[in-house]
Amino acid sequence: MKTKIKQIFLNNWALKLFSLIAAFLLWFLVIVVEDPEAEKSFYDIPVRLVNTEVLEDKGMVYEILDRTDNVRSVTVTAPKTVRDELISTDIVAEADFNSLTVANTVEIKFYSLRYNDRISNITGSSEILKLNIEEKKTKRLSLDILTTGDIQEGYIIHNLSADQNRIEVSGPASVISRITTASVSVDVTDSNSSISTYANVVLYDGDGQVIEAENVSVSVKSVLVHVDILAAKTVPVQYNVTGSPAAGYLLTGQIEASREKVMIAGEADVLSGIQAVTVSGEELDVTGAAEDKTVGIQLEDYLPEGVLLAEQDFDGRVSVKIFVEPEITRELHIPVSHIRITGVPDGYTAETEEGVTSYTLSVRGLEEQVDSLDVNMLYGYVDVQDLLDDLGTEEPESGVYSVTVDFELEDTFHVLQTQPLRINIVISKPEEEE
Question: Which residues of the chain fall below pLDDT 50?
Fold first, then answer.
């Protein structure tokens, strides 16, 4: 059996080989000479839109529906030699807006950039471009600048600005009417210095939802945003009153201001040297005042160069009231026992005149403070050494001397003696040794 099979293949083997080669050559000849037609498909062919200005000239805009601007597949019938050469970029799907129908559709026509005259048929899986056509509307919007994240502690965002603060949007009336705001946003997380960066414009509807519409054009898609970040701290405000009220009037020492502390901002090295904001000068001058004085102060006028107010809701205006009251006079009866005599030389004696039980001290000042003086707690002092210095001697003669009594009234604000209290003291000279 094996021998018979072998003989079938080996007998006349040369003739059989020649027949095989001849058959192949014949087939190849048919292919080359005849060049038979067949189909070839190309996929995801974008639709080229032409003459769209016919709508734009009428103030209309369009929106492509159902993704009909992309043809899923295009089939070409052509000879093999053409099919083998064609690539997908040769296939054109074109929609001419001059052929727009009342149903807002445009027929898609197909052709090839090469060998188009040798293609017998070309069709697509879809041949209609569907459109939504509306009146074109334009709107101008202010551009809001927003930040996200938190800057470093001890710093504030002083100012936000952009190189453009208004934009213009245009597109289908139904979409444009929904747009209510436009904004850009900058991330400032952990920042401690100013930022300049480009940020994209985002459109929002009345509910705060982002509007992403391909058929809406924006005059500016991104803007350069500047975020000024400064160091900040809170310091007290000191009000220094100058001048003296009218005769018979005194300052109470009370100042009532609408601001006792203020937040300031600037470069960190500048702020480190500022411990308070000091207000002084002509605005707080009470010279000749016979009643309370109220003035308006602009704190910015008292800030060092490069330092500014940091609170956005504070315009820097401060109201300051300086209290002025009439002075009163009161006579105090100081018991003799409240007069202390010191500095008496050794061997000498000094005492008040015999028969005098009290002295009258006249004081003036603010009513509340003068009335608060307690005679039982008030003591006067006579330093004999001061008298000896005035006399230029250390051994005074025995006799009666007029001296000034000192009272420690300076610790009580605005309570003064109307005139020095002078009394007579008796100094006795030591007995001579026999």
Answer: 432-434
Per-residue pLDDT, 131: 94
**Structure-block tokens of residue 358:** 């009290």
pLDDT recorded at residue 26 = 62
First vs last C-alpha separation in the chain: 183
The pLDDT, as a whole number, for residue 434 is 40
- Please check whether residue 235 is in contact with residue 303, taking contact to mean a CB–CB distance below 8 angstroms: no
Q: Which of 407, 363, 403 is nearest to 381 (CA)?
A: 407
φ, ψ for residue 103 (rounded to 5)?
-90, 10
Number of H-type helices and E-type strands within the chain: 8, 27
Cα–chain-centroid distance for residue 149? Answer: 12
Please report which helix (H) or strand (E) contains residue 283, including its range: none
The CA distances from residue 306 to 36, 50, 231, 270, 276, in Å, are: 87, 60, 12, 8, 15
From CA 30, how far away is CA 26, in angstroms rounded?
6
Measured in degrees and rounded to the nearest 5, phi and psi for residue 257 equal -125, 145
Supply the pLDDT for residue 433.
42
Contacts 24+ apart (CB under 8 A), 304-307: 304/270, 304/274, 306/266, 306/267, 306/270, 307/264, 307/265, 307/266, 307/270, 307/271, 307/274
